Model the fold of this input.
Amino acid sequence: MTELRNTEVDAVRFRQRAIVIGIVVFLAFTLIVARLVFLQVVRYEDFAERAESNRTSIIPVVPNRGLILDRNGVVLATNYAAYTLEITPSKVGNVAETIDALGEIVDIHQRDRRRFKRLMDESRNFDSLPIRTRLSDEEVARFSVQRYRFPGVDVKARLFRSYPLGEVASHAIGYIGRINQTEKAQIQESEDDEANYRGTEYIGKLGIEQSYEAQLHGLTGVEQLETSAGGRAIRRLSGFAATPGSTVMLSLDIGLQKMVEDLFGDRRGALVAINPKNGEVLAFVSKPTFDPNLFVDGIDQESWQALNTSLDRPLINRALRGTYPPGSTYKPFMALAALETGKRAASTVIQDGGTWTFGGHTFRSHGSALGAVDMHRSIVKSSNVYYYSLANELGVDTMHDFMAPFGFGQITGIDVNGEVRGVLPSQDWKRKAYRRTEQKKWYAGETISLGIGQGYNNFTMLQLAQATAVLANNGIKYQPRLLLGTQDAVTRVMQPVPAPPPVNLGYKPANVEVIRKAMVGVTQEGTSTRVFAGAPYLSGGKTGTAQAVTIGQKDKYNSAKLQEHQRDHAVYIAFAPANDPQIALAVIVENAGWGAGVAAPIARRVFDYVLLGQYPSEEDMAAVRKGLASAPIGTPRRALDMLPTAALQ
Done:
């Protein structure tokens, strides 16, 4: 029996299904249109920017770092371009295997691997890190042929810092190194710095390189490049150039600096020479030195170990951070304190019997009894007894209050980071410096040795040089500085940096003249007469011997019985010419003994260089290093002849 279909019912069902399907299709197309509107209209700018970013790349353009010159235009720090082979660890599957494979194409030494590992530990995983620097053209060509094998590895052209004079003035100039995490965090605290250091991997670490980083770095530029799907640059679309850093000109005379460093030879010590009329630092010597070029690429482990573990401690800036007792060079300042406070007149006579007793303790002189001693003779002949008794009369706090304005135990404010204060003792200082109650008390006997620059006294050569400059300049004090001016990289205009205003300490001219005449007497009839014999100028000076270790009161100093590092330091302060000082200095030669024997001859050569234009001969150099020279030997040389041509513009 055939079933009869209800056509009307089927038609209704069909229409219902068609309507449902139509609604579904309509909703689907509505969703598609809505999505298209959302993507093409609402999110147009966002996706257009993303598309553009896939097509283009914004690259920071690192500026050329500014040059550093001495006062005569000699180049102390410059830049050169070289190729670097770099790895981005996040884009490399196995870093060790990649380095091994690269080693078959270019030379990769063990020190390169160690440096790369250290950089990986200090950097982020997506930073581009150098595995080899200063590639030759042949090495670049060999790698380029096989670059397809090494995703995440590339050759980049970079500027490298160069120090043409190597170790000369390295503590003053400083060096640059890779930005570490601490420095990166400091940069990110400032929006301006964060933008300006985008793409920059190196920063000043020490000396002028660090202190004038803002001037030397320059302004970072930007390039917008069109890139391929593989990320390779096709063409430049837009951007603005980087502004190179400013050239920095220093007050240093690098010829003088090199001469002094050569005169020190292998000995340790420091020398600071200042123009007393404006505070310009002419020489800023710390020996031994180091080669700042070692740090440019990241110092290798062997070199770092050698520098860091050396008993001579070459990385310490002795001129800025080394503190020493001033020894007898303190006596002229003590004498001025006596005059200014009215404790003694210049004509007051003290009997020097060779020893001085206080509280049951005997304080010895450095030589035989001098007999009747007035102020002039006490400086010329360096009487200890005169200053033992004077220290007792003045008291520790009076001495402190008088010496502080000179700069002793104070931050001088020189424009190089890292300066230490040293110690200018007082009762208040001792209460704060020690913990135990019995240590906090100041005992009268502790005051006595302060008079001859021993005891708690500890100052830097920078402080001692500044104090000598103040004395030479009739009590007018200038803040020491290394920067003379900056030259804009665009306009090429040299902009001098004005000196900070001087401070008049208010000493009576007659009192200062008494001290200066006595210091001239030191070079004419006193402890450094032999050194300055035949000099065509008059200078003032004072020798000193600073204890490296304490010798018992009953023991006599005998350098032959002491180890080298236990022997006294040789100290000398001086200014010249005596009637109108153009230079004042302080020099210390560690563990070298008597100041007149070793330190004063260096000062003589400094004055000959500055005042007469003389650079000592090789024979003279050798004699000074041995502590034998008393006058120039041989034919003087020109300072510029001693410098490599790479440093001369």
Notes: The first strand starts at residue 56 and ends at 61. The chain has a mean pLDDT of 87.
